[in-house]
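[User] Could I get a sequence and structure tokens?

[Assistant]
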Amino acid sequence: MARSLSNVFSRSQRVPDNPAIFILGLGRFGSALAEELSVQGVDVIGIDSNPRLVHECNEFLAEAATGDTTDREVLKQLGVHEVETVVLGIGSDLESSILTASHLVDLNVPDIWAKADSDAHAKILTQIGVHHVVRPERDTGRRVAHLLFGGFKDYAQFDEDYGMIKVGVPEKFVGSPVDLDDMWERFQVRAVSLRGDDGQWVPIKRSCVLNQEDQIIVAGTPHRLEQFARRHGRTGGV
């Protein structure tokens, strides 16, 4: 089913900071992304070839349609080329993913995000012209591995050699002003943010005195962060 989505665009104009986006494929990845974006106030238009998935996501989508994304004319009729950002959530069906991605590139969509299920899949999507390729299963697996054995409460990786962790304040840093330069010289990590008793995150300054109940965000390479957390970190706290 293909239909005009001009009503969605007119609603989106009232929220200029959150323009409408398309999500093609409403499986686990696409539906979770659509729901979270909707919570943030984004008008999400979801398309899937499976009517059941479209129905299940209808309650949090600004607009939903059943359609074959591998059909270029269907994409045009739905107005995919009229938005800034399109997310391609099809991963397991390699042929459908690649063909849909090719159509999006041909339609000159300015910002294309696509899910890949393997390195080869990611490489093909990049070669086609997809702007951003994500590997959710791989990235989640890495994150869980760090949480299991890294000695910290939360972990986020932004590049191959840079990430951040959340840990309790190490005992040796409790009760004295933070020496950020010394921390870097000794551990090659840097404390960047602090959450105190009031629950608010604030930048760490050299004058900060850390308490045992505080939580801190520390940045550095994954290897150095793991070393720091295993030797000095605490995962206690909320």
Observations:
- The CA atoms of residues 130 and 219 lie 30 Å apart.
- The chain has nine helices and eleven strands.
